[in-house]
Design goal:
39% strand, homodimer, 2 domains, 16% helix, 249 residues, globular, Thiol Ester Dehydrase, Chain A, 10-stranded antiparallel beta sheet, alpha+beta
């Protein structure tokens, strides 16, 4: 079996924004699905892990796009494991067109936890470190690795939202994809008429639960670059995100 | 080509609720996709209609489920045209498992509009009434047709929400699928722990736009039956919905 998985998706009409381009949240969802398809086919997917009380937990996701697929376009998400360490693995993505066109790339970092203790566990303990057989070291992912999103205390509270039934995933936590949507909802349609998302980055820090209020603190950190801290009801930081835009005409 | 289209979908992890069952909004989206795949393959899909300044507009959708597909389950959405009239066509759905299992059914009513004047147009004008070649009169869809959702003036305002970037579709209107999510968000997790959605019905009356506030008026119309009226900022009614629950243990 190929070390790189390649999965076809469609930019469905109701998954596209007012400009006819795929929403970033749905692209993120496709990447998470591709990760799951790839790992499942190779013996270390979520469904198998559930049977041994283990689970992958997404720690970081960065997506950098030249262009977003347009409504009704078929595109591929390619994914592969770039490296694995005891407590973290890094998985990359390429978003490509049927004709070899490159839309963009993604990078993600995952931990593995024990679903009973919620503590990190040794990734190499799964099938004698079998994940090492799937590492691809020679495929390029030419976007920045990212890292800790630095924010000052000067970040401003710009919105607080309630969370509802549709925000909650099978673990009872606020759905990772919904955070992406809530962050990008901080800008209005007028902004998106003149700005495309160049790079979207999110680090998942702590879980929020159904009924939690989420507060969004925003800081303008560079020209067309914004950082956002999401804080749940009890004041704990849940996520930190960085969004970079490019101006479009 | 078969008059009935059959499309396979997967109950993706991030499309499932806290109980591991597919969200109704995502099932609705799959039905709308199936409708689009079916009509496109038979010459009267959205993509073709756009080229002649026509568009299908969803007027009503009713979904009645025995059971919702569970996380990671593959299921089919079958769809067919039940009848066509000059200004409305009715399209049905069956949600089935790979083993012939029946999860539930759907019914929808569509109008066709001129995208320039936004006025209804004659469905039979497309390719000399070609839609008549695709009518299936002998396939059962054993759920109620529904009809006008009756509500009194006693309906109570229970929530008002803002609409954001991710709520808006390619036409600049609030996305039909998002209305389903917003309605079902009126009940909390505790409710869904003891109640499954037996039937969901929505009628789209007028469009709302980015930035509109949506107010939800709810009326308890029968045992485990609730009606919801959604009203936009200027007081115009946008949607009316009826949700019937069954108790689960």
């Amino acid at each position: 079996m190929d070390k790189i998985g390649k999965y076809e998706f469609l930019a469905e009409p109701f998954h596209c924004d007012f400009s006819g381009r795929l929403f970033m949240g749905h692209l993120g969802n496709h990447m998470l699905n591709a990760a799951d398809f790839h790992s499942s086919a190779r013996g270390f997917g979520m469904k198998y892990l559930m049977t041994i009380n283990r689970s992958w937990v997404l720690s970081r996701l960065a997506i950098e796009m030249e262009e977003m697929p347009q409504q009704y376009t078929k595109f591929n998400v390619e994914t592969w494991v770039e490296s694995a360490m005891r407590y973290f693995t890094s998985r990359n993505f390429a978003v490509t067109g049927v004709d070899g066109k490159v839309y963009g790339y993604g990078r993600s970092i995952w931990a593995m936890i024990d679903t009973e203790t919620r503590q990190p566990t040794d990734i190499f303990s799964i099938d004698n470190g079998a994940i090492n057989d799937w590492i691809v070291s020679d495929k390029d992912c030419p976007i920045d690795k990212g890292g800790r999103v630095k924010m000052s205390d000067g970040a401003e509270l710009i919105r607080t939202i309630d969370t509802f039934y549709n925000d909650v995933d099978i673990n009872g936590h606020i759905n990772s994809v919904k955070y992406i949507e809530h962050v990008l909802d901080l800008w209005d349609l007028d902004w998106y008429r003149t700005h495309a998302i160049k790079r979207f980055e999110i680090a998942y820090v702590a879980e929020a639960h159904a009924g939690d209020k989420l507060s969004f603190y925003q800081e303008h950190t560079a020209d067309d670059e914004y950082c956002v801290r999401i804080v749940r009801t009890d004041g704990t930081e849940c996520c930190r995100s960085k969004v970079t835009f490019t101006k479009i005409s």
